[in-house]
Amino acid sequence: MIKAFDKYPIVALGDAHDCPEIYEFIGSLVKNPDFPNRVNDIVVEFGNALYQDVIDRYVSGNDVSPAELSQAWRNTTQILVWDAPVYEQFFATIRSVNHSLPKQKQIRVLLGDPPIDWSKTQTYQQWGHWLFRRDEHFASVVEKEVLSRGRRALLVVGGAHLVRGIDKSNVTARIESQHPQSMFIVITHTGFTERNDELEWHLKTWAVGSLALLKGTWIGALHPRLRWPQLKNAILADSRSEPKMEDVADAWLYVGPRDRLTESLAFPGIYRDDYWKELNRRNTIMWGKSLAPEDFNLNGRYYVPGR
Length: 307
Known about the structure:
By secondary structure, the protein is an alpha/beta fold. The chain has one domain (about 5-295): Rossmann fold (3-Layer(aba) Sandwich), CATH 3.40.50. Helices cover about 35% and strands about 15% of the residues. The chain contains eleven helices and seven strands. It has a seven-stranded mixed β-sheet, sandwiched between helices. The longest helix is centred in the N-terminal third of the chain and has 15 residues, at about 85-100.
């Protein structure tokens, strides 16, 4: 992945939300001594751009209180998703890596979620104003802070925001429409849906952290619905034909077999007092109801049958 920056200013990694195995890989990637020689920025989905100055101060080594810091991931357009400890640990890892680097090589983390201000958000329409601009805003951060400045960035965002050639308004489409062939897209293996038992055994000899190019391979020939079921009826925008995995991404990252992947669970103690009340207020704005037990995954497994 680091070598890909020799050819592409943007390397994008499809996140499987809350999965610690992915963040163990990302941690090893950014700790590689060559990473800061090739990469300037990391643009993430799990942070509200309203708090960019907070994250800038934190990852550069300045004192930031936990209450101030947590606003960056707690106050996004999404709720509950980023409470998983892997996201707080990610910022701590970048801060630690930067501590050992000269200032000109320190890694900047850019927050890609729109700058929603929940203190001023009272209605579904106000939330939707930002929700439906997520890909647009993420791509604008990449354009303004990375590409227009001749920098290189690792993007960490859900893989569905990255699929190439199908959605003309997602992150990849917006970036590549202005900068053709500027992105190298890596999708993380989380199984092959209903064909997992048939197909995943082919990966049994792969070491954790293996990266495979998709072009001309058996994985590359698969339909993307085996990674994203919502793409079962997808067609390529230009040719109107059925897509293959190699059409929508460039490489496949293996961090372990599907049934051994885990989900990082938030500490239950955070869901109380003012934060709990605020989450219920937001959920009522979003979905017209308070939070319920079924809104939480409590088993710690990434793959749950029927999910």
